[in-house]
Amino acid sequence: MKQNHQQNSNTPTKLSRRKVLGGMAAAGILYIQTSLGKTIQPVLPASWRKSDTPADDLITPGPGPSKLGGRSPYEKPVRLPSDISSRTPLQDLLGTITPSDLHYERHHAGVPNIDPEKHELLIHGMVNKPMKFTLRDLKRFPSVTRTCFLECSGNFRSGKETMTAQEICGLTSQSEWTGVMLSTLFREVGIKPKANWFLAEGADAAYLTRSIPTSKGWDDAMIVYGQNGEAIRPEQGYPIRLLLPGWEGNMNVKWLRRIELSDQPFMTREETSKYTYAVKDKIRQFSFEMDARSIITSPSYPAKVEPGWNEIRGLAWTGRGKVTKVEVTIDAGRTWQLAQLQEPVLSKAHTYFRLLWYWDGSVTEIASRVTDETGYTQPTLKQLVDYRGADMGGYHLNPITSWLIKRDGSVLFKPESRK
Amino acid sequence: MHSCIAGIKMTWLPVVAGLLWVFVTGFIEDTYSTEPVATPLTDTVPWPTTFNLGRAATAAEIKSWDIDVSPNGRGLPAGQGTAITGKIVYQTKCAACHGKTGEAEAGVKLPAPVLVSDTVFVGRKTNTIGNYWPYATTIFDYVRRAMPYHAPQSLTNNEVYAVTAYLLNANRIVKADAVINANTLPRVVMPARKYYVDDDRKGGAEVK
């Protein structure tokens, strides 16, 4: 210790960069240009490569500043694409914001390439003043930022034990969105009193359309151009998309080009043939809100747990406002404990929860269930089947998801039968 | 440029730290203050009656963009067709993806949805126009805007009417010689229409 201190006191206390560089130059150190052309790195004479440090490799400065950052080469989260969608790797996320390049995708005719300078939004139909807005116009209106989740309403897969959270329900993601409130534009065009519905149309090759109650437009709908601090990604609707906080993904029409006000819904293919589902002997239409749901993302397949202290972590959300509590079971549903919710709990947003868990190495089953501010609690698959019938299709399913913990610490999904 | 951090003299550090402390505590105090916070929908400056952004859309612009069709027939263009002419459209422009007739074929996995079946909802194998679609106008609207998948909006209005007539006839809903146009299409009663009910859930304890 003492010796070290003495050594240190020999070094000058005030080191200026100029002095250090100057000193090196005087000592005959060579400089080279890196491929970036800007950063200069010293090349030390071979005779300097001797030190008392036991490290095998010489410690060298890393790359300098760059125009665009990237992930650590050790981190490789990826979406899981199919022909029609790609899924967010929920099990790899830390916190509640989904990196934009990992946001899930679902589109019906691919991602269009749209020139923002040429893109316009038409608002017409039962309005006082039909208008067209350019992207520049839209950006000049009062601009609002909001964090909320999006979820495809066909977001439940099951069938085998070796499934990741991404495969089970990776069609949900969360971003911070920036744009103009739709109500601001409604105010500009003047909405006629009888205009209870509006059609939203995308500029993709499917010209995808959905009918939306005008009340949602006055409430909290937005036309967004920003996602997580930058222009929204092409897969998310560049240059503008409709954002209906808490409502099923498909209605949040991407590449938005047209809004038409009407006194009745348009009954488009996406709200009749698709995004409807059998309930008993009927077909249920216009399910807008996404029901409360949660999933433990850690530990989850393919992770392994080790005996001792672990933390159970996951995401909970509801399209009907705020999450009020998340309960977790570590004994296959016999008892449920309150999990800690990460503040601030935002409305219609992925909410992070966690629960400390001492795993004693025995076989068990863990699961989470969320309750939202309306008093609704996430159901079991059996509860859904009991009410809707086994022929209920694949939309708006939000069952409690259980993970099996095996003796060797492996974590497996527990698929449940619909019958 | 280079002096950013390396250039800060040691003697400045207490000053910088002090400034940081003021900034951080100021921030913390802000978060706990009881002053009203501007919500996203209110502004500190009152809004004008209009922001005068954007421009009036012309009738011609609206006409060229407005291609939707409503269940009451609003939006249907002039033109017509029957299942007889529609069969030719179907075979040349749709069958490659939707199958020879539009009906499910045993052992064949089509790249596109099955379009044709009987009209029996209960016990159906897949959802089709015959057993699931509630409005005939939706066929016209969807095919005109989105089909054929690789070349959307390439059909003439007469072709869309004709192939709509073909699909309605193949699904046992209209006769082969039925003329489908802006008058007749909204009047076609779809067999599955009676099954549709609005979602009435509003949250709360009940699971439905």
Automatic annotation (TrEMBL), chain A:
It comes from the Bacteria. Its cofactor is Mo-molybdopterin. InterPro entries: Ig_E-set (IPR014756), MoCF_OxRdtse_dimer (IPR005066), Mopterin_OxRdtase_euk (IPR008335), OxRdtase_Mopterin-bd_dom (IPR000572), OxRdtase_Mopterin-bd_sf (IPR036374), Sulfite_DH_SoxC (IPR030835), TAT_signal (IPR006311). Keywords: Metal-binding, Molybdenum, Oxidoreductase. Residues 48-85 are annotated as: Disordered. Residues 287-398 form the Moybdenum cofactor oxidoreductase dimerisation domain. GO terms for molecular function: sulfite dehydrogenase activity. The keyword Metal-binding applies. Its EC number is 1.8.2.1. Residues 108-267 form the Oxidoreductase molybdopterin-binding domain. The keyword Transmembrane helix does not apply. This is Sulfite dehydrogenase. The gene is soxC.
